[in-house]
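Box 3.1 A note on notation
Throughout this textbook, protein chains are presented in two layers. The first layer is the amino acid sequence; the second is a token string describing backbone geometry. Keep the layers aligned when reading.
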Amino acid sequence: MIYNITPMDKFAALADPTRRRIIEMLAANHALSASDISKNFSSTPSAISQHLKVLREAELVHMEKKAQQRIYSINASEIEEMEQWLAQMRKFWSDRFDALEALLKAEDTAKKK
């Protein structure tokens, strides 16, 4: 099934603490094999494999096959897309709060007159 992955899909993928920890490990090490990732968790290798699948489907990680190993790394362009979405949301809410602050100040000034 082909579908567009939105930034929210990526955030949903990162809602799980194990997946966030995997991303942190990949950020610190550039690339790791699935078995090296799995060694850092008490979960079964198949459970970690499922987490890696979710991260792969959300396009947050790249997977490269090297012989018998699957090597994972962060998909930096998708992380940047998330940053851009967050920046847009930050600006939207900042503008809204600035407008609210201006309105409240105007009302306060009108009451004092």
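The CA atoms of residues 93 and 99 lie 10 Å apart. The mean pLDDT is 93.
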